[in-house]
UniProtKB/TrEMBL annotation:
<keyword id="KW-0378">Hydrolase</keyword>
<protein>
    <submittedName>
        <fullName>Glycoside hydrolase family 127 protein</fullName>
    </submittedName>
</protein>
<dbReference type="InterPro" id="IPR008928">
    <property type="entry name" value="6-hairpin_glycosidase_sf"/>
</dbReference>
<dbReference type="Pfam" id="PF20736">
    <property type="entry name" value="Glyco_hydro127M"/>
</dbReference>
<feature type="domain" description="Non-reducing end beta-L-arabinofuranosidase-like GH127 middle">
    <location>
        <begin position="435"/>
        <end position="516"/>
    </location>
</feature>
<dbReference type="InterPro" id="IPR012878">
    <property type="entry name" value="Beta-AFase-like_GH127_cat"/>
</dbReference>
<dbReference type="InterPro" id="IPR049049">
    <property type="entry name" value="Beta-AFase-like_GH127_C"/>
</dbReference>
<feature type="domain" description="Non-reducing end beta-L-arabinofuranosidase-like GH127 C-terminal">
    <location>
        <begin position="530"/>
        <end position="639"/>
    </location>
</feature>
<dbReference type="Pfam" id="PF07944">
    <property type="entry name" value="Beta-AFase-like_GH127_cat"/>
</dbReference>
<dbReference type="GO" id="GO:0016787">
    <property type="term" value="F:hydrolase activity"/>
</dbReference>
<dbReference type="InterPro" id="IPR049174">
    <property type="entry name" value="Beta-AFase-like"/>
</dbReference>
<dbReference type="InterPro" id="IPR049046">
    <property type="entry name" value="Beta-AFase-like_GH127_middle"/>
</dbReference>
<feature type="domain" description="Non-reducing end beta-L-arabinofuranosidase-like GH127 catalytic">
    <location>
        <begin position="12"/>
        <end position="424"/>
    </location>
</feature>
<dbReference type="Pfam" id="PF20737">
    <property type="entry name" value="Glyco_hydro127C"/>
</dbReference>
Amino acid sequence: MNKMQAVNLKDIQIQDPFWSKHIELVDKEIIPYQWEAMNDRVPGAEPSRCLENFKIAAGLKSGVFYGAVFQDTDIAKWLEAVGFSLINKRDEDLEQRADEVIELIGKAQQDDGYLDTYYIIQAKEKRWSNLCEGHELYIAGHMMEAAVAYYQGTGKKRFLEIVCKNADLICRTFGTSEGQIKGYPGHQEVEIGLIKLYHVTGERKYLDQAKYFIDARGVGENYFLKEMSDPDFQHFFPEFANYDPSYSQSHLPVREQTTAEGHAVRATYMYTAMAELAYEYQDEELLNACQTLWDNLVNKRMYLTGGIGSSGILERFTVDYDLPNDYCYCESCASIGLAMFGQRMAQITREGKYMDVVERALYNTILAGVALDGKSFFYVNPLEVWPDSCKERTSKEHVKPMRQKWFGVACCPPNIARTLASLGQYIYCVDSESIYVNLFISNKTKIRLENKEVGIELNTRFPKENSLQIAISNVPVKGVNLGIRIPDYAQDYQVTEEGKVVEVCKEKGYALLNLNADGVFDISFKAPARFIRSNVKVRANTGKVALVRGPQVYCLEEVDNGANLSALKVDTDSQIEEVPAREFGGSIELRCRGKRILEEAEELLYTTKPLQYKEVEIKAIPYSYWNNRGLGEMSVWLRR
């Protein structure tokens, strides 16, 4: 088993007609805005008090803990985004601000390395007593990821030293030896952090600890049920009173799990760690489990947009093909977890199908999670919205028809920030003799192959245009293998050099070339807009179609098509017109013909009268940009 690697972000410069505006938004708007939010300086936004908690824990202020038990992760993910941002562009003021936060975190840390402001402030004697709901290990994982990113962005080790002290405590505390806690995290994440910490420090114990947490999960007596049997146990979340271990993927040993169950973010974070550990320990059984889970997740439990986790109750998976559109959850963090999982699987298997899904998640659900001004966010990503019906204390109370300034539980906004800031990690994967191009994003990159620094320049106007040019220079004498992904939507895929068609080997979703000299290659394919239907088992979409162009899913908005979008029926025999959009940074909008059911003049609730129709033009925009023009209805799926 040989795993390819992502290219160091320091070696990638992205200048892309589509993505640059989103990446630059992270530096110019999202990071500063989220700093204000975490300092409770955004009028009308839910308070965070995240930094206040650290000041109290550090003894700099008096007070009580505020917020969710895992509130510390907001600043951790913000710091990770800052680290990635500083890789791309140095900013002394931002770096100084981050250094001050890191020192604050260090002051809050306990002498033995413990770091969790809730327990430090509220319940020191209760630490590690509620692994199911307490999120101590989840917080630790995000702190580890942030410290690694900050070290890579600045070369500073202070944050690393803090999290290593915390990681050392975790290694001493959890395991199979006498006196250790034989438990595992209720919310997976620390496994990813430990693996990243291992790669940066070379400390094998961190990798082994991540393996322990994965291997112990679901084995023997369920640890969380055992915790809850203690008479003194107190729930943070009352809904866990009748706890279902599948919610935390602890119902079975991970190698025996065959369906994506439970909380979608927990699941994908765990699957990501499983894939990493399968490679590190050359564990074929674990890799097979990852492939089985991926197939179930993608082929039976994923939305067209790359959204996952259909239930608004407990943010979880339900059963195969249960994919409702108007009250689904599809948390932004879950799609980020899906992209992380898919990236690792692509690196191990060299199969393009994994990056097809990563691309879908990035262009749709993940990007939809933040407004074009960078100052409001979606936590939930439905595929159909009727604003008037999104009322509190109903089945749709979790669905927000407008992006929110902030959230009391704000895991998604900084998660989106760190993902966009590190987008370059998804473009390529490499090993000592191969370079694979996964995403079509304009960039200039230096890739070190043994003692050679190979240069790649990729230029494209994708997804507006389905062509790209790849110039590769400084090819080593022994040659290099170049793999270029063939997307699952591509038709008439062709590679040319100096106008001549190049014969390529097509394998596992990539066009493979063996290069012995520098060259410039043009890749083109057709990806026309088309109507897509669901498997008939997806009951919510029976008799409906969606509009898709390349990786982008399209939707209808009330501002373009009028109210009551459910009264529209699309003519699937009509030609889909692709029109340059006047909005959204030069994207393509789609137009096609259809009919609208006319409303009854007398407004009878029920009637035997036949329906009346009028011919209409239907206009669709990329799903990622919905709700940037005000409140209104939205729908992805249309009646045929």
